[in-house]
User: What shape does this take?
Amino acid sequence: MKKLNINNLLRENIKTIKAYSSARDEYKDASTEMVFIDANENPFQTNVNRYPDPKQSKVKARLSEIKNIPSSQILLGNGSDEVLDLLFRAFCEPNRDNVITLPPTYGMYSVLADLNAISIKEVLLDKDFQPKDEEILAAQNENSKLLFLCSPNNPTANSFDASKIEKLITEFKGIVVIDEAYIDFSNTESWLSRLNEFPNLVVTQTLSKAYGLAGIRLGICYASEFIISILNKIKPPYNVNQLTQEKALERLNDLEKVEKEVSTILSERDKLIEALQTITFVETVYNSDANFILVKVDDANKRYKQLIEKGVVVRNRTTQPLCKNTLRFSIGTKIENQILIKILKQL
Ligand SMILES: *Cc1c(COP(=O)(O)O)cnc(C)c1O
Assistant: This one.
């Protein structure tokens, strides 16, 4: 295996940074009852009058059980968006470093790059929406710190070939972030099982999609103990609020329900794909490994407007590279999907 010193990839100011520490951290687990008058909280009970657990120990312990990854290799954030932002802050020096993205892909990578004053090298996916591995590797330079691989990819809905991903992880000289927001809908295996083989691999997941908790904002980052220890130092101490922690735990303790919903969504997806193929102005229905479908139509702007007039909001992706005249449909409930098909047939 290659020798990659992750410490050398960090920004200088991050290498020596100290985490914020609260007095509570040190005594929370003490076996005797303690009086907590350290944090200027209101002492009267509201269920949320105390600061939340900054380490989110219970949620991590449950995730650790489910995913078979130690808590020391898990970081939680206020959605994946915060997790991704922390990676920028840890590794990317503003106005010097760059990241590589593979359009068409998730828009937040470039938003976060802009926000952090980091330049972006874009290497388009090929016509089958797969990464051009050789071109990506040729595009990197000594300042390329992060490579974002979104698999299954948003908005194309396909998963990337495992052999290409492996080549990229092995040969990219920075951190490879695999965004697995849609992995629970996919036939492909998560890269979590390979986490310990690659010191530069970071896998992100979220409770926003399959777990049905977009409103609570909980994103998850899995990486080496070293990378997680750095992210823990730089995250805002109370970045995951108590209500979110409680709600997440409740859901993670009811996986059967999650699995049932996912399997319903997948069977609805198959039905919707079949129905879309019968619509006259639909030119291509792309394969989906996620809970949405990318569809090429005759005129995306026109069809988008017509759908809005009928009260259906879809995502128009026509301005994205390789996505001319495409619309993206999320899989709704059976009834919502029926409404969509009925309207499409009328247009
Ligand atoms: C929806 C989505 C996410 C989820 O982001 P959260 O901030 O966790 O809600 C992450 N990555 C991709 C590619 C997505 O489409």
